[in-house]
Write a structure and sequence with these properties.
Blueprint: H1 10-22, H2 26-53, E1 69-79, E2 82-91, H3 109-120, H4 125-136, H5 142-150, H6 153-160, E3 167-182, E4 185-197, E5 203-211, H7 216-228, E6 233-239, H8 245-252, E7 257-260, H9 262-269, H10 275-289, H11 294-308, H12 313-321, H13 323-326, H14 334-340, H15 344-357, H16 366-381, H17 391-401
Parallel strand pairs: 3-6, 6-7
Antiparallel strand pairs: 1-2, 3-4, 4-5
Helix pairs in contact: 4-5, 7-8, 10-11, 15-16
């Protein structure tokens, strides 16, 4: 026989019986709990005042003490029960500092936590305002919501500057575009993310950096930041073909191998290929990057040249220009190759970020971008509980190919 999971104490049962006596609907229960909530707060404030003054209300001990009660002030607070009006006791010297509901506090911590949770889930400030009004009957302006969420900025800065591991076998670079306001104009800003796979095989966002322009100096500043925060060595850096990024990485981490994303390269190669030839071109490109080793890959490239170079000369020009970075993965066995040949890991993360931030068409400031990105990272990271697939096999291969650098 099933029993209730809500085991109540004797005093709680007495309170339930009192609620049942007058309530005929869930609305009646809610209203009564609201009155009980505000009444409990008022009684706690009375107890705090008695402790502050050192004597009970109406006690003769308060005569000639230099301070006494001075009536009540009204305050409206917003809680899970909606808006509640409470009477806050005052003292004549104005030194009473309540703890349960502090001065100038108009919301309980639970409401602020709900606002932060809704913001983290991607709700816009307008949506949060409407939701609070509909559920709690509370009026909280968008400006107030912004100020509440701004309280997380110190935590954002602490996260962005936290110490990192000394070694990351693999890191991924990629960017995501946000619209922001600057000088009364809408500008596009790219948020660059660095996703690392640590020695335990766990994915980790190492940080995010905001920029309006791509440049080698900006990429170098990202790498310098990683080094300042404790990163001593990176075995392989995977990224799209961002101009100057390879040079920037190697200027700070000279031993790091650069691997360009094969998926991006194929996608760019087929961008201007007519539909009738696209599948055939893709199949022949697959022979290049799907070869067993570098020699076979170069042979497949020659065959591709003979077949398609006259018709689509620009395809192999791009492959030849970036050949060493595109084929770096051939130096390693299959266990490592399948991790580094594409930046799908960081692109998948960015798709999840976009899911959380799609309602925010325009971010007014860089700080607002940092807030939504950080809160997205917190939510997304909750699902990163397992190492990447077959990490044990990959780790064994990393330990062989980078044996002399494991103790960096």
């Amino acid at each position: 026989m099933k029993t209730s999971k809500n085991i109540l104490t004797e005093k709680e049962m007495e309170l339930v019986q009192l609620l049942m006596a007058d309530c005929k609907s869930t609305g009646d229960i809610q209203n009564k709990l609201k009155r009980l909530f505000s009444g409990t707060i008022e009684q706690m404030l009375e107890a705090e005042m008695e402790e502050h003054l050192g004597y009970e209300k109406n006690s003769a001990e308060g005569n000639n003490t230099g301070n006494s009660r001075n009536g009540y002030g009204k305050k409206t607070i917003i809680s899970d029960y909606g808006e509640c009006e409470i009477a806050v006791p005052r003292d004549r010297n104005g030194k009473f500092e309540p703890k349960v509901i502090e001065k100038r506090q108009t919301r309980t911590d639970e409401i602020e936590q709900k606002i932060m949770a809704m913001y983290a889930k991607g709700m816009s400030q307008r949506d949060i305002e409407d939701t609070l009004r509909e559920i709690y009957g509370s009026e909280i302006s968008q400006g107030m919501i912004s100020r509440i969420t701004d309280r997380i900025l110190p935590e954002v800065n602490e996260w962005q500057n936290r110490p990192l591991d000394s070694i990351y076998p693999v890191i991924f670079f990629d960017g995501i575009i946000f619209n922001s306001r600057k000088d009364n104009k809408i500008v596009s800003k790219c948020v660059y993310s660095v996703l690392g796979i640590n020695m335990e095989g766990q994915e980790e966002i190492l940080g995010t950096w905001i920029s309006e322009n791509e440049s080698a100096s900006f990429y170098e500043s990202i790498c310098s930041d990683l080094k300042k925060r404790g990163v001593k060595d990176i075995f392989v850096a995977c990224h799209d073909n961002l101009t100057g990024l390879c040079t920037a990485i190697n200027s700070i981490f000279p031993k790091t191998k650069n691997q360009l994303c094969i998926v991006h390269q194929v996608r760019n190669s087929c961008k201007f290929v007519p539909y009738k030839d696209r599948q055939a071109v893709c199949d022949d490109l697959k022979k290049i990057y799907g070869a067993v080793n570098l020699d076979d890959s170069e042979y497949a490239k020659k065959e591709f040249c003979e077949k398609w170079d006259k018709k689509y000369p620009n395809i192999l020009k791009s492959w030849d220009k970036n050949w060493s970075e595109l084929t770096a993965f051939f130096e390693y066995p299959a266990e490592i190759r399948k991790i580094i040949y594409t930046i799908n890991a960081v692109e998948s993360y960015h798709r999840m970020v976009r899911k959380f931030t799609k309602s925010k068409a325009i971010c007014p400031t860089d700080d607002s971008i940092r807030k939504v990105i950080y809160m997205s990272v917190v939510e997304i990271s909750k699902k990163w509980t397992m190492p990447v697939r077959d990490w044990g096999l990959a780790y064994a291969q990393f330990s062989i190919y980078f044996d002399d650098r494991f103790a960096a």
